[in-house]
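User: quick one, fold this
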Amino acid sequence: MCGIIAEAPSIMYMISAEKILMPVRISRSGFQRQGMGRVTEREICSSYKHAKYKNRQIGILAELNSMDWIEVAGILIRNGEKIPHETIIRMCRKLDALEKQIAEKEREYKRIAGIMKGVQADAGGTDIRQFI
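Assistant:
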C-alpha cells in the first residue's frame, strides 16, 4: 500500500510496504520530487500501480498534485492503466449531473433570448445593446 509519512515540515516520502518510492517536496502547486520539477505522469502511474486501494489513491494523487480527480483518472487511462469500476461509475454520475446542468442553462438561455427578441422587435429592429 502506498502512503506518505512526514520526514520534515516540507518533505515527505511516498512509501509502499516494500520500499520508499520517492522523496517529495510539498508546495502550493502540488508535490514535487526532491530537487526536480513536478511529478510526471509516469510517476503518478507508478504510485497508482503500487497502491493497495486504487480508488483512494486517485483522490490522494489528485490532492497531492493540485489536480481534479478526473485529471488523474485521465492520466491513468491515457497511460494504459485500468481504473476501478467505482471511478468509472463516479465519472458517469458526474457526466449525468453536468448534462442536467447544461440542459437547465440551455432552457434559461432560450428563455432570455426569446425575451430579448421581443425587446429588439419593440425597439424597431435596432441593436438592443445600445440600451445596456
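User: anything notable?
Assistant: The two ends are 60 Å apart (CA to CA).
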